[in-house]
Amino acid sequence: MPAITALLRSWRQGDGAALDHLIPLVDEELRRVARAHFRREHPGHTLQATALVHEVYLRLTDVDGLTLNDRTHFFAVASRLMRQILVDHARRKRAGKRGAGVTMMSLDDVSPASDASIVDVLALDEALEALSSRDVRQCRVVELRFFAGLTIDETAEAIGVSAATVEREWAMAKAWLYQRLSVQT
Amino acid sequence: MKAPEPVPPGPDEEWLRLKDLFEAARALPADRRPAYLAAACSDNLALRQEVEQLIASYERATTFLEKPVMLFHDEIGTNDLPRVPECIGPYRITATLGEGGMGEVYRAHDARLGRDVAIKILPRLFVSEPERLARFEREARVLASLNHPHIGAIYGLEDAEGVPALVLELVDGVTLADRLAKGPLPVGDALIIAVQVAGALEAAHEKGIVHRDLKPANISITPDGIAKVLDFGVAKVLAGDESALDVSASRMAMPDDTIAGMVVGTAAYMSPEQARGQVVDKRTDIWAFGCVLYETLTGLVAFKGDTVADTTVAILGREPEWEALPGTTPASVRLLLQRCLEKDPRRRLRDIGDARLEIDQLKNRSERVRKDPPDERVTSVTPGHESQRSTYRAIGLSVLALVLLASGAGLFYSAQPAAAVTSPSEYTQLTNFTDAAVAPSLSPDGRMVTFIRGGEFFLSRGGQIYVKLLPNGESVRLTNDAGVKYGPVFTPDGSRIAYTQITGFFGSPSYSWDTWTVPVLGGQPTRLLPNASGLTWMTDQRVLFSEIMTGTTLHMGLVTATEGRAESREIYFPPHQSGMVHYSYASPDRQSVLVVEMDQTHTFNQPCRLLPFDGSSAGRQVGPPGACTATAWSPDGKWMYFGARVGGSAHLWRQKFPDGAPEQITFGPIEEEGIALAPDGRSLVTSAGNRRSAIWIHDLAGERAISSEGYALDPRLSRDGTRVFYLVARDLVTVSGGWVPSSAELRSVDLGSGETDSVLPGVSVSGYDISRDEKNIVFTTPGSGGESQIWLASLDRGTPPRQIARGGDEASFGAGGDVIFRALQGTGNLLARIRKDGTEQERLTNAHILDKFGTSPDGEWVIAVSVDAGELATLAVPVHGGASRRICAAACSAGWSSDGRFFYVAPAWGPGRTFAIPVPAGKPLPDFSASGIDPLAAVVSIPGARMIEHGSVSPGPDPSMYVFTKTDVQRNLFRIPLH
After folding, report:
1. Cis bond upstream, residue B417 (ω within 30)
2. Same domain, yes or no, for B159 and B182?
3. Do B62 and A113 make contact, defined as CB atoms within 8 angstroms?
């Protein structure tokens, strides 16, 4: 497990190849832990992605040996993977296949006050993809905030900008995504 | 979704304008936005509409995406039933041991280590919350660090399909609860168990771990009478509650309880504060210990009720039946029980260690009264012998006697007549470790050896004390702590090992060199004498040890006193105030003492010394002309033995007492360290092996070795990062905490081509520094007569080296080509500066220094370990006057990156770590508080600070690149016949 710690460190210090090794490890663990959670829970149980990511973080890394920097870098990877995992699952659902022990993403809780009570994860993914072609940073902010549950400050730390910048990007990204998803539905 | 692009596309101008407008409009009150946008977008209606739509979306999307995504479980029928897994991790399940409220327990086999273990799978209901699960895993890691002979070990944590499983030591034997079902134990046996349980609790409490569920069912007694406390901290872990409220409290708050059976079983041992649901701490364990001891002595549960409620009433309001204690219960044990079972935790016994000491003292007193001949004690009592005769000591010895018999002791040695010199073919290997076994010492009867494993023979950091029955007994670890140790020896009765342990950081108020002892049979180490090191016994009552002179930092000399430090008398103090005596051995006739001492640079770099025991003179140096690190007497007192480095290799020597000539008795590439003479004088035990050290580089490509020579050290990166300078030792000497070369060759390696080059061919170097422009080098040589000399040379070998100073070392370049160094004075060392032409030598401060490190890139600051305001500290000292700045409130090594943008600090003790701290532009040092960096770990919170997982690295231009040394010591114990 400490391998993750070393990979994170190498990546942070500029070793791009470390990320290639890191992604499958984190991905596998995210999926495995999610499956394990649901296996011992009743249908209808919900699990915060944030909690899942944090749990995987604690499982995979030697927390004591990591700096705050490593931590945010980990969440940067995990948020992206979490998005991918949910998209994969939603695609399988749409194709009518039910994988073993898989989970479904519901955005029921996400926007109770808004008109769109359920946001389709695939639609969100496509909208994010479109946003990313206009503004990569806004896309990253959404991933970190929504898929990994990072706070504004943590997000700022993860992408190396000020909290005020994150706050501005977040406001506009939300507005832009909301508008795009509203138009499509 | 695509993989991350290496270079993300930047936003186009139109988008940037949109962002600006959106941001500006958002900042305005809603009623002023239309006018603003109309003006700002007068040229572009489409843009204006886009911003307006975004603002409208913004107003509506207040909660949109604000709550992080939830995963929703919509599967049906995957709720699997509990079943016995075949394997958990690498463990094959062989049997079910139990299942209950605390989770399923299996017996399993670990094929890798060939041992059986117990696996406890935690109840699913405990781990449904990720936070709790994460907390559990953190706790389990702490518990796994508990390693004690009387604590059932937690080997690790496995994942049983998403549910955590604890891998535990499988303890064969009955529980104390099983045993007590047959009735009370004899007082002596009860105390033997109590002292072991107290030792276990003491060890855990020292680590901040509270058992919280101590009861007879959690204490296992192995067939040979060893008590092991099980399920340490599991109650807390399962409660998973950081507020430290006990499980039982939350249970009582929940009438609907699926684990009521467990509650009733446990309730009897709950402390009053637990029963009230208050916060609990180690005093709860002390209460439970009292309950257990009471029950062991009487066979009765101290506080009993038919229901949980009745039991609680008894705990809170009633006293145990004191009359039920057997009449032979010592008064001190009765008192101890009352203090443990005090209902108010504030008035209860504070420290379980006091309970252990109380019982230990009882044991000592009973021994003094009994005065049994040792032989009878060993042979006439067997474990489990239920009589009042079976005192603690007798049982302990009888266990040892069984161990001795079982291991086939007695035929450990056969002498082989041969020539005067021994060859390695005659050695008998006693240990077979892949790391190091060093510092051997034999028991008075020669049947056991104690040694340090996993470290150096002196100031062994991370090394632990071991004992082994010769020749084939298992090596048993007796200590498990981070203390820096050296010099283990047996007590005269062979029951304990005494050793020196250094506590605290060099320079911290708690810093001390003390003698500790640990029982040969295992148990908690206890401090025998403070400020006493290298302790050996003269007689059963009188000891010989080194003491730090009051009022000095490390001026250590030889003293004799009784074990209780009465009748203390100085024998010898080295003249230099940094001199230290570390080992001392009295001759068999007690008239002379052989000592191993360090010189003023804290280095074993001189011959051993022979002193008269009466202290009438400072004696004289004896043995071979080299660095003596070990000495011993033959049992008849006719020979003195020495372990010494002479001419670059460490071997064993001997010399006829008093005036013979030294003769070498071992040769060859394998080096020996340490001497323990067998009582019959026909063999000795030593540590033989080799020590290697290589230079490694860490850069963006990873970590790799860049030197291949035998013992390379002291690397420096060139400023452009293409070349590494380093020393290859020809001869080494031991210093506090490691090895330094007494003579070495300076080499460099080109990182591109891998070619190595001798920088100063034919010159023997002990230390060096390269000038900032990389044109010059300052270096030190051992010099004749041991006087270190300082030399300057050009790196391109254009000019021959010239000597600029004598009596100095640790030289580095200051501003303008000046050299800063440690001047070795008669009674203390000073920080000094000299011009490059060898003139104008002057001291920088009047304070004595212990160590000096490098200078800042501008040459204006130098790092030194010195006494500051009465305590030892690492300072940055200005070269041209002014106030020193404190770096660490203890000894640490420190220095700058080549460009001065980072400052590196490495604690001298503890795990090898270096912190790289950014230096603000235009400043020489980071902004430390006046008290320095304390604790060092707080450094990681400094913005931009990084941690490097190696101690004492030599920095490159930035923290992503550095060089360091990796040392590898392989040594094992060997018996060498003497001819």
Report:
1. no
2. no
3. yes
